[in-house]
């Protein structure tokens, strides 16, 4: 990206005015390209600060010829206190492909906790991840009893996405019980269990568990007793972030379109410009 394009994007995103020195074709290109960028603190970039690799990768891919900006983003992420305390360098595990037909053919499910008890009495999170799109679902729950698991599986999976062909869990008593088996039998869901000697079989869910807990730790107060308030926020962030395996956002793979992020109501993008004023009012209300 040359400096002319760079500053044209900043001008358009901050003023909604296209540079007059550009011809109509160039103006259209700037308008189209703007959907992939936002201006924050007079810097042009997109991606959140919690993952420097993703932030820097986006800047590299779009060939922004500004070494200082690249270094600024790197230093900002490296010196973010919460990012350093909660983001951990992980060893990359080898991938073992699993054949999946379509979305929600297979759902992995797991329990996170016990966590610090919240003001609402929640101590656990029941988590499910869909294997094709990597779409996650989660709910804060007060206990790890079968009733809580069955309620989550019925309301968050079956009622929202339809009946999966199979669900994969570990051998904990909260999953191996008559209530969940009865629900699976009723709706034709095959309940598969990870082997006792290889519990990492459900690795997709376990990796999401780590990401979820790290995200909640950044949002929660010092007493860690309000983390349940941010489960939906953490889910939204994960669903709209490009996944390393699929190279797409789970939201895009699920719905076939890019999501409109909250920041795009404040920083105009082509996605928002294509929405009429009445539609924008409906979304805001």
From TrEMBL:
One of the GO biological process terms: DNA integration
A cellular component annotation (GO) from this entry: nucleus
Domain of life: Eukaryota
Residues annotated as domain Integrase catalytic: 93-258
GO molecular function, a single term: nucleic acid binding
InterPro entries: Integrase_cat-core, Retrovirus_Pol_polyprotein, RNaseH-like_sf, RNaseH_sf
Any one Pfam family match given in the protein's UniProt record, by short name: rve
Name of this protein: DDE-type integrase/transposase/recombinase
Organism: Rhizophagus clarus
């Amino acid at each position: 990206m040359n400096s002319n394009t760079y500053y044209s994007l900043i001008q358009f995103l901050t003023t909604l005015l296209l540079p007059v020195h550009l011809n109509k074709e160039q103006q259209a290109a700037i308008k189209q390209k703007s959907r992939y960028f936002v201006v924050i603190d007079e810097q042009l970039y997109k991606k959140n600060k919690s993952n420097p690799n993703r932030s820097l990768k986006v800047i590299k891919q779009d060939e922004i010829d500004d070494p200082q900006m690249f270094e600024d983003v790197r230093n900002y992420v490296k010196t973010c206190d919460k990012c350093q305390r909660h983001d951990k360098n992980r060893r990359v595990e080898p991938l073992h492909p699993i054949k999946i037909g379509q979305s929600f053919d297979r759902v992995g499910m797991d329990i996170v906790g016990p966590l610090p008890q919240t003001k609402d009495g929640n101590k656990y999170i029941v988590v499910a991840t869909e294997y094709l799109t990597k779409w996650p679902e989660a709910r804060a729950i007060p206990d790890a009893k079968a009733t809580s698991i069955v309620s989550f599986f019925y309301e968050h999976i079956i009622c929202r996405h339809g009946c999966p062909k199979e669900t994969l869990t570990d051998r904990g008593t909260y999953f191996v019980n008559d209530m969940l088996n009865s629900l699976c039998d009723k709706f034709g869901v095959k309940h598969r269990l990870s082997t006792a000697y290889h519990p990492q079989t459900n690795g997709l869910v376990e990796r999401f568990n780590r990401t979820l807990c790290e995200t909640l730790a950044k949002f929660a107060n010092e007493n860690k007793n309000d983390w349940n308030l941010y489960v939906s926020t953490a889910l939204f962030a994960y669903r709209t972030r490009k996944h390393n395996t699929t190279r797409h956002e789970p939201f895009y793979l699920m719905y076939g379109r890019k999501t409109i992020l909250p920041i795009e109501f404040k920083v105009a993008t082509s996605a928002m410009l294509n929405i009429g004023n009445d539609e924008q009012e409906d979304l805001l209300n």
